[in-house]
Amino acid sequence: MKQSIYHQLHLTSLEVALPQLLQEASTQQWTYETLLQRALTTELEGREQKAIARRLKAARLPSAKTLEGFDFSFQPSLSERRLRELADLSFVRTCTNIVLLGPPGTGKTHLSVALANRALTAGHSVLFTTLSELAHALSTASHPGLVRSRLRHYITPSVLVIDEVGYTTLSQEQARYFFELVTARYEHGSIILTSNTSFASWGTLLGDDVLATALLDRLLHHAEVIAINGRSYRMKERQMDRAGVPAPAEATLSATGARAAGVGASA
């Protein structure tokens, strides 16, 4: 069956909206120029919504978190102003990395996804992964060509979110691939990374102190390091559900690791 002229011209959004537009044009006595402008605007808006949907699907974000949904009052050590400034996405334009350090449950993933969502809405490509998933995908590639293909998958997006750094100790091969990825993105794309481990412990994480130093040198050269020294949201919610009282304070992550790496971590 022959495709309609709308499909041939890729005007699929206009095809759906046209009957309603024609009815409004007749009712409100639009000029031909007004009708044409409304028709073209409808098609452009439809294309943008489809593009956002494609980018969102490709990003594999675990949730639809926003900065507006983050409870800054629960984490007083964290500067809301600083996060709002990052949300203007200048870090994407300058290929600056963002490193969020803190104990489990303090909102690191929420903030990383919120910033990634801002980037998506603004038209940037995004990909979310955990370090464990990333390491497994690269180390299980069956031949060098597949390794290069998978590396390109993580190198290409404007913003790469690497969550849960510190939960998995990498093999020598995985550590080398992680280093290659950070090196390839250095000054070419932004990384948003979350970790519950101070930089001083990355030698253990990678199984190689020299490699860890070289990786951190590239990761932190152009980076915003944000330490979240606070309580766990999950523990708070669990305590409130069970007893209706706030959760006790948890041990906080020391910022000494950041200082050891030569970066002033601040909140």
UniProtKB/TrEMBL annotation:
<dbReference type="InterPro" id="IPR028350">
    <property type="entry name" value="DNAC/IstB-like"/>
</dbReference>
<protein>
    <submittedName>
        <fullName>ATPase AAA</fullName>
    </submittedName>
</protein>
<keyword id="KW-0547">Nucleotide-binding</keyword>
<dbReference type="InterPro" id="IPR003593">
    <property type="entry name" value="AAA+_ATPase"/>
</dbReference>
<dbReference type="InterPro" id="IPR002611">
    <property type="entry name" value="IstB_ATP-bd"/>
</dbReference>
<keyword id="KW-0067">ATP-binding</keyword>
<dbReference type="InterPro" id="IPR027417">
    <property type="entry name" value="P-loop_NTPase"/>
</dbReference>
<feature type="domain" description="AAA+ ATPase">
    <location>
        <begin position="94"/>
        <end position="227"/>
    </location>
</feature>
<comment type="similarity">
    <text>Belongs to the IS21/IS1162 putative ATP-binding protein family.</text>
</comment>
<dbReference type="Pfam" id="PF01695">
    <property type="entry name" value="IstB_IS21"/>
</dbReference>
<dbReference type="InterPro" id="IPR047661">
    <property type="entry name" value="IstB"/>
</dbReference>
